[in-house]
Amino acid sequence: KAKVQRIDERTGKEKRVSEQYLVDALSFTEAESKTTTYLNERAGDFSIVSIKKSNAEELLRGEGEKYYLAKIEFKEVGEKGKVKTSKTSILLTADTPDAALSKVKEHTSDWMTDNELIALQETAILDFVQ
To answer: Model-level pTM?
Structure first.
């Protein structure tokens, strides 16, 4: 998350807003460095206010401007025949919730386990920084 100085489109005045970015990095230091470079090119005054590890296990990028987080529950049969329930999270891009839902269904259709989408929500992520 970063606090960035932006011009309010309605009032024309400068305003400090919070923005969230998804960063491909191996460490917090690398994430901060990449975000700083990214914002130096796109924003005036800014400060990085927090960095946290995403709990998403996959990223499905493609068409779409918005980022959605899908939470999926799946069941697997263990070695002793006992059913084990697990959860995973997938970040994906889409333009609408319906497009996101369709993308999740397509992605999980070939999983070898029974799975159920338990949540799908739009995130505040504005961009992916590599």
So the answer is: 0.87
Cβ density class 72-110: b for 16+ within 10 Å, e for less: bebeeeeeeeeeeeeebebbbbbeeeebbeebbeeebee
Tokens of 61: 């990028």
If we measure between CA atoms, which residue out of 65, 54, 55, 57 comes closest to residue 108?
A: 57
Query: What is the rounded end-to-end Cα distance, in angstroms, of the chain?
Result: 15
pLDDT tens by residue, 48-88 = 999 999 999 999 998 899 999 999 998 888 788 888 899 99
Distance between CA atoms of 130 and 122, rounded to whole angstroms?
21
Q: How far apart (Å, rounded) are the C-alpha atoms in residues 99 and 90?
A: 14
